[in-house]
Amino acid sequence: GEEHYNCISALHKSMRGSDENASLYWLARMLEGGEDPLYVARRLVRFASEDIGLADPLALTQAVAAYQGCHFIGMPECEVILAQCVVYFARAPKSIEVYRAYGNVKECLRMHTGPLPPVPLHLRNAPTRLMKSLGYGKGYKYNPMYKEPVEQDYLPEELKGTDFFKAQKT
What we know:
By secondary structure, the chain is mainly α. The protein folds into two domains: about 1-90, Zinc Finger, Delta Prime, domain 3; about 115-155, no CATH class. The protein is built from seven helices and no strands. The radius of gyration is 22 Å and the shape is elongated. It starts with a helix and ends in a 37-residue tail after the last helix.
C-alpha cells in the first residue's frame, strides 16, 4: 500500500541527502518486507541519472549492473548488490544539471506554438540522389575530419543561441 511508496521515497531522499546509514536502513526495510528487488533496482537506475547525473557518470553503470545482478541471482543473494549500489549512491556527488536541462527542452517543446521547426538541411541524412539534389546534408562538416573545432549550427534557426542548461524554468 502507501508504505511501499513511503519507503521508496525515504530511500531516495536518504541517498539524495548522502546519508548512507539511512539509505541502508530503508533498503533493508523494503527488502526484508518482501519488496521485489528488481523494483528497487529499477528505481536506482532512474536515481543514477536524475540525482547523480554527470557528477559521477559511472553511477548509471553501477545501477544497471545492480539491476542485472539482481535479475541473475535474485533474493536473498542480491541484497548485498543493492546495498553496495545504495551506499555508492549515498556517497556519490550529486548533480541535476542534465535533469533540469532536459526539463527545459520539454518545456520549450510544450510552449512552442505552430509546427515545430524543421531539421536544418545540412543535418539531414541524404541516402538518395533526390535528397542530395534537394540540399540534404549539403555543407555539413564531419567534426572528426577537422583538427580545430568546427563552427556549425545544430539547432533550428528559431532556437539559435538557446542554452537549455542555463534556461530557467518559470
